Amino acid sequence: MTVSRDRVSVWVPATSANLGVGFDCLGLALTLGNRFTFERAEESSFSGCEPRFANPGNLAYTTYLEASRALGVKPSPVALSCETGIPLSGGLGSSSTCIVAGIAAAHALAGVEVDRRRLVELASEREGHPDNVAPAVLGGLTSSFTTGDGEVVCMEAPVSDAWRFVAVCPPYEVRTEDARRVMPPSVPLATAVWQMGRVAATCHALETGDGELLAKACDDRLHEPYRRPLIAHYDRCRAACLGAGASAFWISGSGSTMMAACLGDARAAAVGAAAQRVDPGLRTFALSCCTDGTSIR
Predict the structure, then answer these.
(1) CATH number (domain holding residue 268)
(2) Of 62, 166, 172, 233, which is the most buried if we count CB atoms within 10 A?
(3) pLDDT cut 70: percent of the chain above it
(4) 118 and 174: one domain?
């Protein structure tokens, strides 16, 4: 039997969803993340996060409350400490880290075991879709979907150690609602076929370290053509990163973060420098795939 705890620390990795052609199904965990520490207290408090999140509306905290009540447990007041490594420009799954951490903390403090698959299910229900929470919990590359009966199905795949992922983060956000609103309600059959053939190739290229294949496969026609205008730096960054040797370039999630996939550290450094030359105000992070996913201690 698991014993209830007075303190739990949860680290959740950043994620890049869609990976170009894998709209709402592909996701990748990255070696950057947020840590949330929940400790029982006389009254709830918040530290380590931006002032706008240091209040009872904090997503990690509200998720903790909801998950505790779902377990039939009265949630204890907690001192919530956040160590945020993920930029708030959007597109790196920061909301998913809050949701996963809140659910994991509720179970740990209540002394209730939850395995990773169940954690994905609960987080997907709270988030509304699994493309970010699946890699956040499981690590690696995931392809996920929800059946008509509401079952979340996730397939995991390894990622070649050769890949580096350069996150290019503008100093502004793109609201997910805006990114959804600009998309058409339907697409031609030819577009659907275009996407389907390239999703499998994208996964294979990431598994095998095949940069030439990824360059051919990572060419989205479903969502990026409509979302690009929302990111002022997109066209210049794409040209600069591909020109510096990136194999592929995509909008991470709904943006504004953009992602350049590169083979090797040297090429990643060159790509990051090229993005900085576009605008020194851009933040860049050279990352690898996080294979372990969420850590609870």
Answers:
(1) 3.30.70.890
(2) 166
(3) 99
(4) no
135 with 245, same domain: the answer is no
Burial degree of 109 (CB within 10 A; 0-12, 13-18, 19+): buried
What mean pLDDT is predicted for residues 195-209?
96
The packing angle between helices 116-127 and 59-70, to 10°, is 120
User: Alpha-carbon distance 215 to 42, whole Å?
Assistant: 55
What does the alpha-carbon distance between residue 99 and residue 222 come to, in Å, rounded to a whole number?
27
**Predicted confidence (pLDDT) per residue in 171-183, tens digit:** 999 988 899 999 9
Domain containing residue 59: 7-157+292-296
Q: Is 280 within a domain? A: yes
Task: Output b/e per residue, 114-140; b: 16+ Cβ within 10 A.
Answer: beeeebbbbbbbbbebbbbbbbbbbbb
If asked whether residues 14 and 138 sit together in one domain, one would say yes
**Percentages of the chain per state (helix, strand, coil), in multiples of 5:** 40, 25, 35
CA distance 132 to 106: 20
Q: What value does the mean pLDDT take over residues 209-225?
A: 97
Residue 119 lies in a domain: yes
Q: For residue 1, what pLDDT is reported?
A: 45
Cβ proximity of 169 and 85 under 8 Å = no
Cα Dmax for the chain: 60
Mean pLDDT of 20-41: 97
> Looking at the structure, do residues 220 and 81 belong to the same domain, yes or no?
no
**258/57 Cα distance (integer angstroms):** 28
Which DSSP category does 250 fall into? E
* Residue 1 forms part of a structural domain: no
Specify the pairing of strand 78-84 against strand 163-169: unpaired
In the chain, the amino acid numbered 49 is C
Same-domain check for residues 99 and 151: yes
13, 31 Cβ separation under 8 angstroms? yes
